[in-house]
Amino acid sequence: MRPVTSSTTSWLALAAFAAAVAIAGDLEAAQSAPDSENGRYSMTPIPEGALRLDTRTGTVSTCTKNGAGWACYAVPDERTALDAEIGRLQAEVERLQGQLAAGPTVSGKIDEALPKSDPLKKAEPKAAEGERKIEIPLPSDQDVDRVMSFLEKAWRRLIDMANRVQKDVSGKI
Asked: Residue 3's pLDDT band (boundaries 50, 70, 90)?
């Protein structure tokens, strides 16, 4: 037997370390295999962390990193609300179809001919409707004088403003 030297010991230690790393890598891959098996989860990065889609169930979760590690929380699913509304509407349709089937039948054809009339012609007002009149009160002379006074003041201010602008422009030229 040969005596063990330091270089042989170093090679053995290095080989043992490499074997341990390889075994640890296989164990880690074996532990994560069920989650990623057949591409079950699809991850998409978002500013807060990651968005995880479970391709088997369709559940969407947001995964964020906090002090204790990563945590994933399911995103509220509107699908259940939609399914409930669809179920309610289907029940209402069935109820209304039942009412329609139980009610009197109406055929599309009638025995009498419809009277011919011009659809664009206005109907004659009835006697009761003819008596109603819409009265719009006209402005009084005082109201007209106030409006005229306001317009006159506004016109004079406009003319004065135009004259001042003209003086300013002619003085600068």
From this structure: low
pLDDT for 1 beyond 50: no
Confidence band, pLDDT 50/70/90 cuts, at residue 81: confident
How many whole angstroms separate alpha carbon 159 and alpha carbon 172? Answer: 20
- At 26 the pLDDT is 52
Measure the CA–CA gap between 92 and 105, rounded to whole angstroms. Answer: 21
SS3 165: helix
Could you tell me the pTM of the whole model? Answer: 0.28
Q: What is the C-alpha to C-alpha distance for residues 7 and 88, in angstroms, rounded to an integer? A: 80
SS3 for 74-141 is ECCCCHHHHHHHHHHHHHHHHHHHHHHHHCCCCCCCCCCCCCCCCCCCCCCCCHHHHHCCCCCCCCCH
Other beta carbons less than 10 A from residue 75's beta carbon? 13
The whole-angstrom separation of Cα 70 and Cα 63 is 7
